[in-house]
Amino acid sequence: MVTTPNADFNVLFGWEDENKTFRHYDHKFEWTRQQFQDWSNNIILRFPDYTMYFTDIGEGPAGTEALGACSQMATFVRKDLCNESYILQKYTKLCICDNESMCQKNTGTGSVMSCKCTCSLCSPSFSWGICTYVVNYLFVSC
């Protein structure tokens, strides 16, 4: 995941100093939407084993839609992570919570991946990869 402020959005801040170009003194760059998309697409060309999608972060006020969002994010996902056979069996087996668990009360039985329960049987105690999580949780097509 790579984020950058959307430089197109900066006109909405109304800075007194007309020479100010970045939102914060420690920023090395702030890209327009086109610059960010060009850079991200170049990464995909150089690393064809990845796919990528964009997400807007922070909507602007009504009437500023043409400027885009306040910030922008590109999420790069290795294509092999999109293959369902990659996901560990632990996360695709049926939920085995008892009848008192939140899982049984609210969602019934089903795949652990779709379970809303927070018990230790449903929630993994270790990370299994943010990209895989994002792909499956947000239903991003690869």
From TrEMBL:
Show the GO MF annotations.
metal ion binding; RNA binding; small RNA 2'-O-methyltransferase activity
According to its UniProt record, which reaction does this protein catalyse?
A: small RNA 3'-end nucleotide + S-adenosyl-L-methionine = small RNA 3'-end 2'-O-methylnucleotide + S-adenosyl-L-homocysteine + H(+)
**Highest taxon of the lineage:** Eukaryota
Q: Which cofactor does it need?
A: Mg(2+)
**A cellular-component GO term for this protein:** nucleus
- List the EC numbers from the record: 2.1.1.386
The record's InterPro entries line, in alphabetical order, gives: Hen1, SAM-dependent_MTases_sf
Q: Which UniProt keywords apply?
A: Magnesium, Metal-binding, Methyltransferase, RNA-binding, RNA-mediated gene silencing, S-adenosyl-L-methionine, Transferase
Gene Ontology terms: biological process: piRNA processing; RNA methylation; siRNA processing
Per the record, the similarity remark reads: Belongs to the methyltransferase superfamily. HEN1 family.
- Kindly provide the name given to this protein in its UniProt entry: Small RNA 2'-O-methyltransferase
Source species = Diabrotica virgifera virgifera (western corn rootworm)
Which lineage is the organism of this entry classified under, starting from the top rank? Eukaryota, Metazoa, Ecdysozoa, Arthropoda, Hexapoda
